[in-house]
Each structure stands twice: as C-alpha cells, then as structure tokens.
Amino acid sequence: MIVYGRNVLEEVLKSHHPVKMVYLRKDEKDRPSQLIEKLKKLNCPFTFVPDKKLAELCGEAKNQGVVVDLEFRYADESEIKGDLVVLLDHINDPHNLGAIARTALAAGAGAIVIPKDRSVGVTPSAVKVSAGTLLRIPVVKVTNLPRTIDDLKERGYWVYGADMEGTSIYEEDFRPPVALVLGNEGEGLSRLVKQKCDQLIAVPMYADIDSLNVSVSAGIILFEMARKMRKVGR
Amino acid sequence: MIVYGRNVLEEVLKSHHPVKMVYLRKDEKDRPSQLIEKLKKLNCPFTFVPDKKLAELCGEAKNQGVVVDLEFRYADESEIKGDLVVLLDHINDPHNLGAIARTALAAGAGAIVIPKDRSVGVTPSAVKVSAGTLLRIPVVKVTNLPRTIDDLKERGYWVYGADMEGTSIYEEDFRPPVALVLGNEGEGLSRLVKQKCDQLIAVPMYADIDSLNVSVSAGIILFEMARKMRKVGR
C-alpha cells in the first residue's frame, strides 16, 4: 500500500506494518535530516527520487516529499483489546472509515472491527483521511460480525448498537468494557446485528431531523462513552 | 443552483429558497403522486423530462427522478438568531460544511455564519452531504468575521473558539446564548478570530493524537453544549 506525507510516515514508524520502501525527495539527501537519522536507526529502507517520481508513486503532487510503500497488516481477532471497541457493520465510504478510526483512537478505543465482505477496507484514501491513525489502531477483519459480537459478549463486553430507535446516550452509564456497533451509511444496522446487540442507543435530536453523518454520530457517542468511562468533567 | 433527490426536495419545499423549476421523471405523470399534489398546492413550477435529461441536469444518474433548480439565498446578518450559533472561520471543504450544517441543525443551532472570502460557500455537493439541511438553516455570509463576533458579544452571546489549547468542554457550563467558532481544516482559528473569542475550548483526547476531523469536533462540542443548555440526561 502506498501512503504519503510526513505525519503519515511518523505513524507508520510507530506501527507494526512492515515498510517496503520510503521514497524521499532528492534534496533531502543534501541537508542535515533528522528523518534520515531516524530511518537509519530503525533499519528502515529508504531511497531518494525526483519530485516527479514521488508524484507518480502516490498520484498526488502535494506529498511533502515523502512516499511510503508499506505492507498493511490487518490485526488478528485475538488482538481485540481494551475497554472500548468499535465495530463497523458494512461502512462503505473510505472517508467515514478514516474519520471514525481517528475518532476511535482519540476516544481511547483499542480496536476497530470490520467485516470481510461488502465493507470498505483500509485503503490509501482512508489512511489519508485518518491522518495516519488507521495505521496505529488495530483493524480486525472478521468473516462473521454477529459471531464476533457473541464472542465479545462472552468476554464480558456490553455491546451497544447505534440506532435511531435506541434510548438516549445521556441516559446510559457506559460501564466498561463496552463495544459500539455503527451501521451502514444508508441502511443502518443489519437485522441480525441489531438483534445481537445488548442495547440500542441514539443521539437525541433537538430539531426535526432524521440522522447525522455516521462519523459525526460515532464521535458524539464515543466521546460520551469516554466521558463517563474515564469520569471526566461534569 | 441544481440539487437533486426526493429528501432534498422535501427540504427545499420547507425552506425560503425560491424554486425556479422542479424536474420530474416522465413516469411520475402517469401514476397517483402525492408529490405532484403537493407541488400544485404550493404553486411550485414543475415539468416532466426523460431520465437522460435529469442525469444531464444534475450530473448524477442516481437522482431518484427528482432534480430541482432553485435560487439559493444567503440569510441576512439580522437573521442570526437562537441561543446557539455556529461560525466557520474559513472552512474549505464542502463535505465539512455539509456535515457541520446537518449537525448544527440537529443540535438546535439557529444559524451558520461563514466569511465571504477564502471560504467554501453553499454548493450542490455541500447541500448533498448535508442531506438538504443546508437549505433549512439560515446561512449568513459576512465580510468581516471578527466584527460579527463583536456584534454577537454585544448582543450577549458568549463566544467560544475551538482550539487544541483551550480548556476541556467538560469543564464548561455553556449558559445560553452561546456561539461556537470552528477554524480552518489545516490552520485552525485565525489569529484575530482567536483573540476576539471570549474563551477557547477543546475536546480532550484520550490518546496521543493532535486533533479530530473538524466536522467530528463540531459534533462533539455542539452536542455537549446542547446537553448542558437543554439539561438533558446526566
């Protein structure tokens, strides 16, 4: 997978995804560079190429002189950890996956779970929207989301599904560990997933309006969970 | 401005934006249609055209057989009202404008204020992302955002600016009326706007991460304001 940008490289170097090659702008060679020191120290392969080649590699001229070819590795189901886990029930838009990953990490989530089929996977554009954070949070691909929900319940997680018909998030205590399932952009949660959830919750609307963008909903719900779980403020 | 989709038309009809023409798929003529009854009742001009023409008009084949040509009208500065107002300090991405408008309306905001220059305006794609809600909330275009902040302060609004260095939103009481200023995607709040704000506030992060997508931040902050202002839940 090709990704680009200096911040994204920083995230790559903190992650467990193997780097095949870091491509740097030629003039990086001729000046003192902390970046190169760091790459040497980490035994990370790098090479210098002209601007034109960088733009060719990533399809974007504004790449900050850094393009990375990495081997993205999905995490194993055994790596689902932490007291807050996010499951995505067939999200289609890479922008939503990217924004949700960034928000989930910021709220202290330990993993993101996506189904293998009919779901967006980790793509370069999702990584870009996530500001590289998709490389830092474990992303687990499962064949059967309802079965993963069962597993989480057995492990003691209370599994919430986001659904317009649910009870208000402000009425919930959110005792950890919890999992949050977010549905597809148009369709919401699938029938079986909805049945499997311990409880359905909703963001209350203060105007005559049906729903929010799924990444905005995710932000409001995850931070309300975090506020109560971490006992922050009032 | 050309917009499309059945839900968007519903929003148009609830709004004050004059409709130049509603284009409907030809077969709508040959069956009982509540939509046509409604358009007749509202004295709204409509006509029937082939699918191909609809796709041509809006540049999208998935238009649900409804394309609307309307005259979008920005609201006047005197129409800034309600106990919650959102100001956007040079937002560039129409997706962010659309998602923020939808969230602002859902949180009970009375108006959105954008600057005339170096800011995205209301475009068809912003309307689409907002699910038509950009047509329902007054959008005010001002020449000088810092002056509008001064005006709001004179009218009794407490003006908050979203900034990483601000105090936690969970420490604030948010006594209405309040205004929230959100900064540009990359740069944040501009220097002068930051100075003009009564107070800077931030969403606390639970991991080593700099910031959230601006529309996600907007959602978390606006719904925390609404929760406290409307005294909802605990």
Task: Characterise the protein shown here.
- Two copies of one chain form a homodimer.
- By secondary structure, chain A is an alpha/beta fold.
- Chain A has two domains: 2-70, 60s Ribosomal Protein L30, Chain: A; 77-229, Alpha/beta knot.
- Helices cover 32% and strands 24% of the residues of chain A.
- The first copy, chain A, contains eight helices and ten strands.
- The first copy, chain A, has helices spanning 6-14, 34-41, 51-58, 94-106, 124-129, 145-154, 191-196, 214-229, and strands at 2-4, 19-25, 46-49, 66-70, 84-89, 111-115, 139-142, 158-168, 178-183, 199-202.
- The first copy, chain A, has a six-stranded parallel β-sheet. A four-stranded mixed β-sheet of chain A has the order 1-4-2-3.
- In chain A, strand 5 (84-89), helix 4 (94-106) and strand 6 (111-115) form a beta-alpha-beta unit.
- In chain A, helix 4 runs parallel beside helix 8 (214-229).
- The longest helix of chain A has 16 residues, at 214-229.
- At the A-B interface, helix 4 and helix 8 of A face helix 4 and helix 8 of B.
